[in-house]
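Hi team,

As requested, here is the filled-out complex form for the iron/sulfur cluster run. I kept the field names the same as last time so the parser does not choke. Let me know if anything looks off before we queue the next batch.

— J.
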Amino acid sequence: MSSTDLRTVPAQVGAPIVELASPLVGGAAARTHAGTAGLSLTEADRSETFTMVRAGDLGSVHSWELVTAVDGPGTRLTTFLAGCPLRCLYCHNPDTMEMRRGDPVLAEEVLGRLSRYRAIFKATGGGLTVSGGEPLMQPAFVRRLLRGAKELGIHTAIDTSGFLGASASDEMLDDVDLVLLDVKSGLPETYRRVTGRDLQPTLDFGARLAERGIEIWIRFVLVPGLTDEVANVAAVADYVATLSTVTRVEVLPFHQMGRDKWASLGMTYELGDTPAPTPELVERVRGQFRERGLQVY
Ligand code: SF4
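And here is what came back:
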């Protein structure tokens, strides 16, 4: 995530659009968690299900939300996919980290719903945002959703950390209008402390997007004592200033609203004593981006 860095996503299975997330393979009584796809299968369905997953016809979805003024322009259907390779200390939706916590949903079902909102998207300049979790953990499914949305004439966005950017094919990117790119830190060692992973794939992905002329919105979560160092922010801002297609930078002040989810999942939350950033700190960091000529929110 993603936009869900600091936005608590709907309770699993989807709040406003419950029927989309109904199990589509096997009945509830027969469901077991199976394998890497994290989908719930019966033995008899297993082979067909994996074929559908590989083809992008079926994905593991955490939840859905119809939103305005977040996750891209206009009113958007944000689809939160399950599964993420990062382990951000501040993650507000740790229940999206594991793909097995998602529900199997057909791409057709998502696209059917999308089609019904077409008039709203057109009126507001909105569209589809595929978020997570990390959407690029399910590249075939994402590619299918993006292609289907474009065939419907709908604006598309993906919300990603970029860590799995190499999984996004050029064909997939041809169907992406906007990438919400979460740059979680600018210094490699800080990035690793925050996420448990390497920074370089994100940097490479952002450069690739800019080369392809794809619009980027940058997101940076400001956490006192973790990401707020002047040098760390400067490294993010210097990098972002090299990306010619960035039209917006969002500095997201850390807050504690997601902490209870960690406990409910039996996971250790390390930021329990971390305060929200002061207005002065937020302004300093936004200023570091503005100094490089960037449009900051
Ligand atoms: S762990 Fe994954 S889902 Fe959570 S904030 Fe990080 S990138 Fe987003």
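Two things worth flagging: The first strand starts at residue 32 and ends at 34. The first helix runs from residue 46 to 55.

Thanks,
J.
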